[in-house]
Amino acid sequence: MTVLRRPRAALTRHRPWPLCRRCGGVALDLGSARTRAWVAGRGMILDVPTVTFPGAGAVYPVQRGSIVDTQGTARMLERLLGHRLPRFARPVVVVTVPVLDGPAFRTAARTAVEVLRPRTVLTVPAARAVALAAGADLSRPLLVMDIGAHLTEVVLLVDGAVFDARRAALGTGDVDDDTPSARLGEVLAGMTTSMLRQDATSLTLEALDRGPLLAGGGALRPEITCRLADLLHVPLRAVPAPHTAAVRGAAKLLEAAHPHPPFTGPDSAPDDHPH
Asked: How many CA atoms lie within 13 A of 100 on its CB side?
C-alpha cells in the first residue's frame, strides 16, 4: 500500500486571516497625538489619543516623532490591544516609524511591542506606508509630505526606498495666533526647496513635477495646502483619508508579508534609510 504524504509546504502554509490561528497580525501607527491600530481580520479598530495613565495624571509617551517613555508606550499598548488579540496568538506586528530619528524610534518601538508577544516585528518608514496606502507608482520618484499634529516630514522615495528627507518639529497641533496654519505651508515649501538645492540629480525635481503626495491630518486643512500650492506651483495630491494613510499602508505590508515563511521567524525586515 502506498501512503501519500502532503508536502511540508502544504502543512505549514498560512490560511487567510482571520482563519489563520497560528499567528495574528497588527499594524500600528504610534503618533504623538493619536495611536491607530489595524488588526488582521477586523480592520481598523483603534484611533485614540496617545496617552497613558500611570498615576493621577496623563502621560504622553510619544512626542514629536520620538518615543520618550518606552515603558509607558508598552502599558498603553497592553491596555488598548492586550484583550483584543487571540489569547495564544503570536502576532506579526508592523510599526510605522518617522524617517529621521528612525533608528531610535525603531529600537524603542520594538521594545514596547514586546508586551504583545510578537512572532515578528517589522518596521516601515511612514512615508513608504503612505505611498502603499495610496497605491502610488513607486517605479518613479515620489515626494511624500506627511503633516502630523506635532511633526512634519518631506520624504523623497526612489524605487520605493528613502532617498532624502527633511523634518520640522511643527504640526497642526501647534497652530495658534503666533503660528497660523499658513505657516505650515511655508515650512513645507522651505524644506522642499532645500531638498531641491542640495540634490545633484534631477530626482527631486522629477518628483516635484509629478506632484507631492499629502498625508496626515494637515492634508485636510485647505489653509495649509493652498498656501503650499501657491508657493510651489505644482499639483498636490492628497491620499484618501490622509490621517489614517500610514496605518493602512502598514496593514497592506502586513497582509503581503503574512503568507511568506521569512516573516514568521524572529527576525524583522530591513528598514529604509535616507542616503
From this structure: 14
Q: Which residues contact 274 (CB under 8 A, 6 or more apart)?
A: 99, 100, 155, 162, 163, 164, 165
The answer to whether residue 255 sits within a structural domain is yes
Residue 55 belongs to domain spanning: 23-128+245-260
Query: What pLDDT is recorded for position 7?
Result: 45
Q: Is the pLDDT of residue 25 over 80?
A: yes
265 pLDDT tier (thresholds 50, 70, 90): very low
∠ CA 5-9-11, rounded to 5°: 60
Tell me how crowded residue 19 is: count the other CB atoms within 10 A of its CB: 8
pLDDT value at residue 100: 86
Q: Are residues 187 and 116 in the same domain?
A: no
Is the residue at 4 inside a domain?
no
In three-state secondary structure terms, 197 is: helix
